[in-house]
Amino acid sequence: MKAKRILWLLNHDTLSKFELPLIRDLGFEIFTPKIALKEILQASGSITYDYDHTLTIPEEDLNTLNQYDFCSLVDMPLNIKKIINSYFATAITYTDTSFSILRKLIHNFEGNIFFRAFGVGLSKFNNYTELIDYYFQRNDKYKLQQISDRFWFSQCYPNLAEVEEDIYKKNAIYMPLGLPLEFYDIENQWVGDMNKLLFFCSRIKYVAEAEKVYNEFKRDFRDFDYLIAGNQPVPVDDDKVTGFLEREELNELYRKCKVMYYHSTNPRHLHYHPLEAMIAGMPVVYMDGGLLSFLGGKRQAGRCKDINEARNKVQRILDGDAQLIEDIRQDQKEILYKFSYEFNKEEWENNFLPIVETINSMDINSPKKIAVFTSIEQEKCHLDDSIEMVSMLYQGIIELNAQNRLILNVYKDSHDFENDISELTEKNVTLREYTMESISAEHVSDTLALMFKNQSLWHDSYLLPVDYAQNYVDADLWLFLDHQIEKPIAPIIPFGIYVDNIGDRHYETISSARISNLKNAAFILTNSQQTKIDLIKHLGIKKEKIYRIPFAYSKRKLNSQIYQGTGYILIEADLNRTELVKKLFDDVNGYFELYRNELNIKIYFNNYVKDKNGRLFEELNELVQKSDLLKNNISLYVNLEKNEYDALYAHAQKIIIPHNMKNIFYKLAKAAYFSKQIIVNDFPFYKEFEDILNYNFHYKKFNTNKNVLLEVLSIHDEVAPSEFKYNNDKTGYFTNDVSSAWRKLL
Amino acid sequence: MKKTGVFLGFQPGSNLSTEGIGRLLAFILKENDEKKTNIILFCPKWLTNSVQILLKDNKIPEDRFEIVSTSNIPLGVKVKNYLIERRIKKARFDQKNQLIKKLKKTTLESLRKLAIDFFSANSLLIVLFKILGYMSLFVCLLPFLLMAGAGYFFVKFINLLVRILIKQLPYNSILNKIKPLLTNGRGAIYQVVLDNELNRVVDLINKRTDIDVCFIPSMIWSQIRRLNCRKILAAPDIVFYDFPTQFPGVGRVHERIRESIAVADHLICYSEHVKKHHLIDKCGVDPNKITVIKHANIDMNEHLKISKSIQKFFTIKQNAKQIVNEYIYSNFSSSHVLYNVDFEDLDFVIYSSQYRSHKNVFNLIKAIKIINNDMHGNIKLILTGDYRREEAIKEYVHSNNLENDIFVMHNISSELLAALNKLAKCSVNPTLFEGGFPFTFSESYSVGTPSVMSNIPVVSSEIDDPNLKDLMLFDPYNPYSIAEKIVWAIDNAQTLFDAQDKLYQKFSQRDWKKVVSEYNEVFNKAAR
User: Which keywords fit this entry according to its UniProt record (chain A) (predicted)?
Assistant: First the structure.
């Protein structure tokens, strides 16, 4: 069925009226683009929904395609790539304004690509080779050469490829163009009762070449009575120039003017107006060497070798030479036949159909490989949660195709494969170690050239995940589980980023490198609607590339041999947020100064890195030890193993997390799992997790200058924590489960 | 036929298209009857380009008005322009560097080819020939090489000498002492140069016998006292009187304004408030010498219009998006929040105004902080005035992590401004003072976007419906009030837009033709 569907990506009004019915008659379903640039629409462009009903693809996918702008300046999104490759085997396109559709197709579409060549008109370019070289990057050209077995130079006239370079010549097929039925409204209506010569020249004061044509015509036919039609965006001070004419006014000229002169000697470009005149039956005098003379038959009474012959023939017609008029009218029929439905259908059947009927058997469901990268600073205590998440991603991926592979990459030297991650290897997840290497933009550019890819490189240097083997270029997608990578990721393979939340924006401005990564990401995975909204509205991320997946977290059994005491309050803090940590300490100190009681508080510091914030931790520890108020009441922890950390949670009275931090949702899930009272700041993206976990949190406005902690610690509420009911159905809660996300991407 | 001159004395580098006065002037010019145009624009040479851009930006045919300018740009202005350009145009240096790089590359490449050629020789005889050839080439080039070498070492020597002298002499302390004197002196000299040029513009007008009335759209060009014709002075406001502490260094400007008012034959202002409080109460101007001409609506829709033939395929909103995206793609990289964004998904508000202290930008920014940080909202603010020149606001934005929430787009075209207004959820105007009802209301309403505004006399006096006042006005001194109103307006944009229809229609009764006829009436009266 796929072989019988066509992406017709042209937005050209006249062409659509002839070509789409023809393609339909040849038995194809047709998709037409519904979004076009203003410039395309202004240049005889149009949009049609008339062929949507022919498509037998899911409505949701058709809607997605209909909302996509094929001319957009950014890369084609993965979901669009997936749809076009799933349902279509053929695409037809043209120059648009800058070859952006063709560029997208050659990099993303895996079927036959037909490039419609109408001939290069008045421009500084001599042929399509020059035009494409001007708009294409070197890497686009390499890619075009790579796919040359399914790229077709679809020429509207059989001589266009003669002046092109080999790749177009070799792949040239003749797919003529025809004239839509509405052109025949004036068929044989010519009476020629106005003794005037009709000439067309549009945009005289707008395009230098047009002005040259205008001046030459005025010089050559200065003694004749003539009219010059054609749209003039800049008015021309000449009574004989009509300017824009409505269709009926134009038809009136075709009926009445005695003769038309067509100046062009371009053998590879033709305007519509001489053909319209011929349909009306008006004799057209044209130049030898031009495309009309190429399309005409053996006898061509309207053809002229030079301007003198043209002047002479025009004069004879104006003088009423009936024989010449009749000969020209008769011979023109041969030209018009080349634009007829019958001729076109035959040529398309002979040339186009054999190609699309023997499509290459590109298999959209071939096994895919995804390289997943854990955080560089992966907290050991949340390793199990990350593993759970990877397991879920893996389950989703093999649901699509059992042959799909997931390569989990942990940061170098940070984990013991055998003990820490063994359960994944049992599931056939491949494990590797990676590191991040900083490479220059030039290095990225060279790499992209070798892969025939194009990417805008805005930065001087990039981060490349490296395993010192293939460096993951064999993967179809990369997925980074850490969204706080503070350097741009090399755009070598389409990559995704998992974002739990962007609450850190309330503590610092999200850096331009992170924004760049999220903007350049091919997809973003997140768990909550609120985070999706934040990504769209705070960072301006396109909603179409954000996928919600279920929240997966570890539900390990508590190791009862590890005991951390009882009756304490656990506070979590992020050691990277120096100011907040200091305020936390001041607040706790303030509490003990006021109450001087024996409340037991344990503080766990996240993100401990000895070289980065080790000094701060030492200072805090020292402060506690030296303080009579604090030393018996406060214990500080960093870098706990998962069992110790679980125990810390299991025996706590309540858990306070005053500011947002990495892995926050794992912490909330753990607290819920152990049925602990949780007190957190009132961020809206936490609230959704109450539903996800089916558990209630308590909210306080910690994000102020007040000592909110004092209030929280002072109140010995006896409110029993909610009872946690473990939701075992990972896919039950969300409508978008993980495999449906993968299905759209792979 | 007697004609009206328009005196334009804006400083070099002014962009009339983004100045309120410039845009008002554009409306007056645009609506002047094409066939009976009797207005001549007089300006210094440095302003002609800006005037032409203003006409083009507002789609006024360039040849409709005669532009008379001084013959040349004064040397002092040229020097200053050069110094400014030298500071900002690094590209030229880059070009030079590119040229040097290219030269270096070509030389190295030639040497490399020579070396390859030499070592590729496979017979002793050829090697000998080549040695002889290279030696004779070297001898021929020797004089040039020596000259180039000598030149190179001479420049190096001079540079070294200058560095030694700078080290030895108490250069810095001397420079620090004389720098303020030099700067002040330079500023004073530059101002005199500008003043002289404006005097030349006055001479140009005085030479014309057909000019009997001259319209002066700003009060700061006191040279107009020498004009022989009748002088009609536009007096938008004297905002300093309401904010005397906010304009340090404005003394001389104040004097000029008072001089202009003193010599004007008639004054035009845009509101009764300015007439009474600034011109009559503060300056003691005879009320009979003042005419209040209110603005008409600004219809920004004309900048977004699309041709009839494509209207069924392409909406005005799509047009606005395309205009904004073209600007974004050519000005921002992928590190920017606005890059590759669907503007319909963003909740952004716009305040289009020059940056001036009484425009109250700081309180608006504080309101955004309240919405985004305290209320955890997701609002963006687009400003056309560059607040970053005020260090305190810049620091506030930074320390409250608002860099990804507040964007400046200044010196933008009317087309882009119209597109931004179209895509904004709401327009906000927190100004503490305006000479007339703010333009921003009709700018945004004309493209389908409602406004919330300061509750100040010039605004509230125009709104008769107390309910509408409640809906759309806030206390500009209270950021919480601004924040609350913005949040409500975004959530209830259609309700607000519907509620503001009557107000817009009220202003629509006045069109620019009517405004211009009132201006012409004043000109004609003065001419009699």
Answer: Transferase
- Whether residue B404 and residue A509 make contact (CB cut-off 8 A), yes or no, is yes
Q: What is the pLDDT of residues A463-480, one digit of tens each?
A: 999 999 999 999 999 999
> Which residues have CB under 8 Å from A45's CB, separation 6+?
A11, A12, A13, A36, B310, B313
- The first and second tokens of residue A361, run together, are 């058997």
With CA atoms as reference, report the closest residue to B496 among B472, B469, B467, B463: B472
Q: For residue B333, give how far its alpha carbon lies from the nearest alpha carbon of chain A (Å).
A: 7
Three-state helix/strand/coil letters over B412-448: CCHHHHHHHHHHCCEEEECCCCCCCCCHHHHHHHCCC
| Contact call for A537 and B336, based on CB within 8 A | no
Judge whether B1 and B35 are in contact, CB under 8 Å: no
Residue A546, phi then psi, degrees to nearest 5 = -100, 125
Tell me whether B286 touches chain A (CB under 8 Å): no
Residue A159, C-beta contacts closer than 8 angstroms, at least 6 positions apart: A267, A268, A294
Rounded to two decimals, the ipTM of the complex is 0.89
CB contact under 8 A, A456 and B341: no
CA–CA distance, A652 with A435 (Å, rounded to integer): 37
Q: How far apart are the first and last CA of chain A?
A: 20
- Amino acid identity, residue A637? Y
pLDDT average per 10 residues of sequence, chain B (528 residues) = 87 82 83 70 92 84 84 83 65 58 80 82 82 86 88 87 73 62 69 89 92 92 92 90 81 90 93 90 93 89 88 94 95 94 96 90 97 96 94 96 96 93 98 89 96 94 94 97 98 97 92 88 84
- CA distances in angstroms from A96 to A10, A69, A70, A553, A593, listed in the order given: 7, 12, 10, 49, 73
Contact B378/A at CB under 8 A: yes
Coil/strand/helix, residue B351: strand
Cβ–Cβ contact B310 with A under 8 A: yes
Which stretches in chain A have pLDDT values below 70? 122, 359-364, 415, 417-418, 558-565, 716-736
Cβ neighbours for A490, distance < 8 A, ≥ 6 positions apart: A439, A444, A447, A462, A463, A464
Interface contact flag, B310 A458, Cβ < 8 Å: no
Phi-psi region at A121: left, alpha or beta (left = phi > 0; alpha = psi -120 to 50): beta
Single pTM value for the model = 0.85
Among candidates A725, A717, A665, A718, which has minimal Cα distance to A695? A725
- Alpha-carbon gap, residue A653 to A637, rounded angstroms: 17
CA of A634, closest CA in chain B: separation in Å? Answer: 31
Residue located via tokens 């500009």:
B476
Per the listing, tokens 């500084």 go with A124
- Read out DSSP for A671-703? HHHTT-EEEEE--HHHHHHHHHHT---EEE--S
Taking residue B283's Cβ as centre, other Cβ atoms within 10 Å add up to 15
Q: Which two tokens stand for residue B7?
A: 């005196």
Residue in B345, B346, B376 nearest the CB of A684: B376
| Distance separating alpha carbons of residues B376 and B369, to the nearest angstrom | 9
CA A703 to CA A580: how far, in whole Å? 9
